[in-house]
UniProtKB/TrEMBL annotation:
The keyword Signal applies. It comes from Plectus sambesii. Residues 1-24 form the signal peptide. Residues 41-169 form the C-type lectin domain. Keywords: Signal. It comes from the Eukaryota. The keyword DNA damage does not apply. InterPro entries: C-type_lectin-like (IPR001304), C-type_lectin-like/link_sf (IPR016186), CTDL_fold (IPR016187). This is C-type lectin domain-containing protein.
């Protein structure tokens, strides 16, 4: 076979084969069997609890119908919209806890500061630029006139419309949105021959150009973080960059033949 044909076949092969962590599972089938009580999206199944509990109790005792369950992290606008339309709107309840919490980084933090998805606490990533607060929220009740956050309301409930309210983590009681993740993920090819720009907001400190033994390790590392939605591999150096942004656009990339990116859909 001529060398250039071999090269062409290799290129085609690398473009069309997703990185699969393990074989498919029954999560999507289980999710579909629950009808309007569940919604499958982005290789997660979202369900609703019915008992009103504190956030802490929800986090400790709810969302245990299957493995890989926890209070949901709706880490992008598209996920919030889809879960609202396809799950929340069909429920008779009105407010649910999600795993979005305030972890104050200083004594002078404001009410809008330092909100994180719980798998990213103590890091600078995982903040949700897509969080839409209800009018006057977050208000950190009971209010103080200095405008600072006084560590009162550090958990969040979401309404059917997708807007959010800060509320107490132990003293207020609501059901929760659960998220069950596939034990196996398929990361689909997103961009071949392009590198994520160093200025992209998808990048976070400490998760860039990590040396790995195989490209599959990059997918395994990304799966560790619920807020990691994609990863980029340098095929020459075998390094891995995790990407904490779902809606990567052309503006996030620049041409570079050494790189390819895989995303979770
Ligand atoms: Ca607060
Ligand atoms: Ca509030």
């Amino acid at each position: 076979m001529a060398a250039h044909i071999k090269t062409l076949l290799l290129v085609l092969f690398s473009i069309t084969v997703p990185i699969r962590i393990t074989s498919a599972t029954a999560l999507s089938t289980w999710c579909a069997s629950k009808g309007t009580q569940a919604w499958y999206l982005g290789q997660s199944c979202y369900t609703l609890t019915t008992d009103a509990k504190s956030y802490v109790d929800n986090a400790n005792t709810a969302c245990t119908e299957r493995v890989n369950g926890g209070v949901a992290m709706l880490s992008t606008t598209d996920i919030i919209k889809s879960v609202c339309t396809n799950l929340l709107s069909k429920s008779s309840n009105t407010l649910w806890f999600i795993a979005f919490v305030q972890i104050l980084q200083s004594d002078h933090a404001g009410k809008n500061d330092d909100w994180f998805w719980v798998d990213s606490k103590n890091n600078t990533y995982g903040r949700c630029p897509d969080a839409t607060w209800a009018s006057g929220e977050p208000d950190d009740q009971p209010p103080k006139v200095d405008g600072l956050d006084h560590n009162y309301e550090n958990c969040v409930v979401i309404e059917k419309t997708g807007i959010m309210r800060d509320t107490g983590c132990t003293g207020s009681f609501f059901p929760a949105i659960c998220q069950y993740r596939e034990p196996s993920f398929d990361y689909q090819t997103k961009n071949i021959g392009y590198k994520v720009k160093s200025t992209s907001t998808a990048l976070i400190s400490g998760k860039v150009e990590i040396s790995v033994e195989t490209t599959e390790w990059c997918a395994i590392m990304c799966k560790t973080y619920i807020t990691c939605r994609a990863f980029s591999i340098n095929k020459s150096l075998i390094t891995c960059t995790l990407l904490f942004k779902y809606d990567l656009s052309e503006a996030d990339f620049e041409p570079n033949p050494d790189y390819e990116t895989y995303g979770l859909y």
